[in-house]
């Protein structure tokens, strides 16, 4: 018999005489159980794909925690480091990070196309230029992200750091609400409870680290209201834009790298508009790359990496898990800041908040198994 024909034969398993396949006894000769090799292979492949998906989910979350923690520490150090000459402009750093993200995504598409320039050119032409409506969809989250960044500057100009940090964690709750309404995601009792615990824990963690010293200049009630409205609007815009981007990624056949190229393209345009509006005079006077040094480039590279990691998290996990990973990075940033920068003294309230955040993280992923009676054969 040809090999191909033999490969299509079902697998025969011969049991001892008197043995029933289901575990009982049967009279007569040998009992034969037939298994279709195709279904067995499909089941094995499904289990392998499920394991790979879970590994990618938690790997991307771990990288996101590392990237966010490193970015916060290096950015904070770069903005407080005293050097001669003008300091680098954050608006230009955002644009450079978007351009680096585009370059990295193009390289990843090039790798996926088996390192063929012709295939790369065809993919970029077919997926971006020939699909203008699909490309324009990314203008919405790009514009919202740009608005969000501007609102956060307004918030930090009118609120003390502790109030800003605690209030901004409401973006996790808004993300959950938008996930339910836009993605029809169903959250269980444990997940809703974990969101409440998370916000409480982050509030405990952030308050003592940032509220030890207030600015000598008291904020008026009017400026506090402006800052509060800015940070609340940023929370809603962050939740909507993140879930909108997740919806696009999971409803399209385009790769996450193509979507990031489109997102970075519009992000660069909106970012350049921000440079012109807010820092145009400084750029014309001292140049676009004023104040850039080795540390600045590390910050920019980490920021560009963040966009790619977040896209992977949204692809393999979801936006709410991204919020939990970010919250864990807040704890790590505060601890490392204590040992490295020595500008924070942990308290019992901090450790209580850390325990709450970690508990909420595991509680969100908890999936209780049904306890019904087993079905009898």
Tally of separate domains: 1
Radius of gyration: 27 Å
Which strand order spans the largest sheet, edge to edge or round the barrel?
1-2
Number of strands: 2
The count of helical stretches stands at 14
Order of helices and strands: HEEHHHHHHHHHHHHH
Helix content range? over 70%
Extract low-pLDDT stretches: 2-9, 11-15, 18-29, 208-219
Distance between the termini: 39 Å
- Bin the strand percentage: under 5%
Average of per-residue pLDDT values: 75
Largest sheet: 2 strands, antiparallel
Shape: globular
Q: Which secondary-structure class do the elements indicate?
A: mainly alpha
Biased composition (Basic and acidic residues): 1-11
GO molecular function: pyrimidine nucleotide-sugar transmembrane transporter activity
Region (Disordered): 1-30
InterPro entries: EmrE-like, Nuc_sug_transpt
């Amino acid at each position: 018999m040809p090999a191909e024909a033999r490969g299509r034969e079902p697998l025969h398993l011969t049991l001892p005489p008197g043995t029933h396949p289901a575990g009982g006894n049967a009279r007569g000769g040998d009992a034969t159980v037939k298994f279709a090799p195709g279904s067995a292979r499909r089941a094995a492949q499904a289990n392998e794909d499920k394991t790979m998906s879970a590994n990618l989910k938690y790997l991307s979350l771990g990288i996101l925690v590392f990237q966010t923690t490193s970015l916060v520490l290096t950015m904070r150090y770069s903005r407080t480091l005293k050097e001669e000459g003008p300091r680098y402009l954050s608006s230009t750093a955002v644009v450079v990070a978007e351009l680096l993200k585009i370059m990295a995504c193009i390289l990843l598409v090039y790798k996926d196309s088996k390192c063929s320039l012709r295939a790369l050119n065809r993919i970029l032409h077919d997926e971006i230029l020939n699909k203008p409506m699909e490309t324009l969809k990314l203008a919405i989250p790009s514009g919202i992200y740009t608005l969000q960044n501007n609102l956060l500057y307004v918030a930090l100009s009118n609120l003390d750091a502790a109030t800003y940090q605690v209030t901004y964690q409401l973006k996790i709750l808004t993300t959950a609400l938008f996930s339910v309404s836009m993605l029809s995601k169903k959250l269980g009792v444990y997940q809703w409870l974990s969101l409440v615990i998370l916000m409480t824990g982050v509030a405990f963690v952030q308050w003592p680290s940032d509220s030890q010293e207030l600015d000598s200049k008291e904020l008026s009630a009017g400026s506090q209201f402006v800052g509060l409205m800015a940070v609340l609007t940023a929370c809603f815009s962050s939740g909507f834009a993140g879930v909108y981007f997740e919806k696009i990624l999971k409803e399209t056949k385009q790769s996450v790298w193509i979507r990031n190229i489109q997102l970075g393209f519009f992000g660069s345009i909106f970012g350049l508009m921000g440079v012109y509006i807010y820092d145009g005079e400084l750029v014309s006077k001292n140049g676009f790359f004023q104040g850039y040094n080795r540390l600045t480039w590390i910050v920019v590279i980490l920021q560009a990496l963040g966009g790619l990691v977040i896209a992977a998290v949204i692809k393999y996990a979801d936006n709410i898990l991204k919020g939990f990973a970010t919250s864990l990075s807040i704890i790590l940033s505060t601890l490392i800041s204590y040992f490295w920068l020595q500008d924070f003294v942990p308290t019992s309230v901090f450790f209580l908040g850390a325990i709450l955040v970690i508990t909420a993280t595991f509680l969100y992923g908890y999936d209780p198994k049904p306890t019904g009676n087993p079905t009898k054969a």
